[in-house]
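cron nightly-structures :: item 1 of 1
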Amino acid sequence: MADKLAALVASLEKLPPFVGMTWRGALGSLVASQQLAGPLPTSRDVRIASSNLETEAVWAVISSAGRDIGPFSMDPAAQEVVILPGSYLTPANELRDLAGLQVQVVLEVRDGIAVGDVPSDDVLVRAIEAARALGPARISQPGRFG
């Protein structure tokens, strides 16, 4: 199994890094930095990551080295970005209510580097409200993103 994971990660590392904001459903707040032991799926669509804004909480992950696998996915609409093993997820702020959703900004730190600015609450609220205005998304793999 470890060989298969190593082969997957080696393949993913050949893709260009994704720098930007992705989303991950969560059961609560991340209170300390955690290193990932395996790949972590996130979505560029907050509706997908949060089961149509129904999860208990959501992390806005500021990716510095994730890999956008959407074009290769069985479900390109999921807009999946994989955070690679070895990356650290580090809380940038506290979990708080934004536009009716519990949100925490989490930084991806890879090789000691975090890229990107922490988005303001206004940016996060606009993203959530824009997603809400689109209506429900089709969730092809419930629970995959949190």
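cron nightly-structures :: done
The first helix runs from residue 2 to 12.
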